[in-house]
Amino acid sequence: MTSQSQGIQQLLQAEKRAKDKLEEAKKRKGKRLKQAKEEAIAEIDHYRLQREREFRHKQSNIMGSQGNLSTKIEEQTTEKIRDVTNSFHKYMENVMKQLLNMIYDIKPEIHPNYRDAV
After folding, report:
1. CA atoms of 65 and 108, how far apart (whole Å)
2. In this structure, what DSSP letter does residue 84 have?
3. How far apart are CA 60 and CA 53, in angstroms?
4. Where does the record place the region Disordered (predicted)?
């Protein structure tokens, strides 16, 4: 009988050791998964920062050239406005004289399509 109880005790101890090893393996697996997740997050953050830097660089190149273009357009517009203003001041008096002459020198004429109703 003692050998049977001793055998049962050995089986129980072996089962307990197996259970402990299983728990230890689960803990190690959990730690590895957690570490892998943290490494993946760090890698994703690094990649995201790299891509954002590249985007900002491309954006500044494009927007910088557009900034130069808008400055150039603004200068051309200002020059054209100046030219139109100078032209206005140059020809304003002559145009006003011609317009007033046309108003003052009215020559009444009968329209060629007018028919005498009589």
Report:
1. 63
2. H
3. 10
4. 1-34
The pair of three-digit structure tokens given for residue 83, joined into one six-digit string? 């030219």
Alpha-carbon span 97 to 92, nearest angstrom:
9
Residue 58 backbone phi and psi in degrees, to 5: -65, -40
Calculate ∠ Cα 44-47-49, nearest 5°: 110
CA angle at 84 for the pair 82 and 87, rounded to the nearest 5°: 110
Spatial separation of the C-alpha atoms in residues 82 and 63, rounded to whole Å: 28
pLDDT in tens, 63-99: 766 667 778 889 999 999 999 999 999 999 999 999 9
